[in-house]
Amino acid sequence: MNYSIKTLGTEEELKSVDVIGKNVISLNDDFSSLRKIIKKIKNDVKKKRKISHDYIIISNNSKYLNDFVASIKAAYILDNSKRIDFIYDTICDFLDNDFKKNNYCDFQKDKCIACRLGVTEHERNGCCYSFEVAGFFSMSMIKNEGPCRYLTDQGCSTRNISCKLVTCRYLQENGVMYSPYKFLLIRCFLSIKQIDVITYNFFTTKEEILNKLKKKSYSPYVFWLMLRLFKVKR
Length: 234
Ligand code: SF4
Ligand code: SF4
Known about the structure:
Largest sheet: 3 strands, parallel
Bound molecules: iron/sulfur cluster
Strand order of the largest sheet: 1-3-2
Number of domains: 2
Structural class: alpha/beta
Shape: globular
Distance between the termini: 38 Å
């Protein structure tokens, strides 16, 4: 289905644009109202309602601009597998760009800012150390800790969305943290179970997470949680 999206900065700019027959959407920072708009677009597209598929988005400096535009694009991807691929890559791109632009981890050779300040357990390689949750009767919380198998000299060799969504305590104390629940793209298109999958599968590959995301689960949510069915099985 064909659609178009044009973005403008402010309503002032509407004066020089042809708006006849187009959906003009003025953004704000109210997550739940934007979510409702995206859900409506998603339903309209799914039910093939005879609506205009041309959008003019007025950003008003909304922090959700990119997320909102990406969500409209996702609504027009009717193939479930392709839509999940798109959501996964778009969220990873967003997080990568945010880290790069702000240089949060500030790596110098193989030492990030937290390593250099001595506020992590490790002297190098940031937080790329994998571990497993220890058994119920174990004295410690984790076991088998060691450098992640996907870490290379060029950095992470896979695109693990769970790792990208989490930040260490040092960054969190400096206000850098993400929640999957704060992305329109995630909240409007993924189920709660799928959100668990992208949240808790550290130290696995992108392909493993995507496979898990695309697989249907019929277990009741309580079993999903208790039996840790959200985890990629290896
Ligand atoms: S999240 Fe923290 S520990 Fe991990 S690389 Fe960045 S600064 Fe270092
Ligand atoms: S999978 Fe996670 S822990 Fe492993 S190298 Fe990549 S980002 Fe680091």
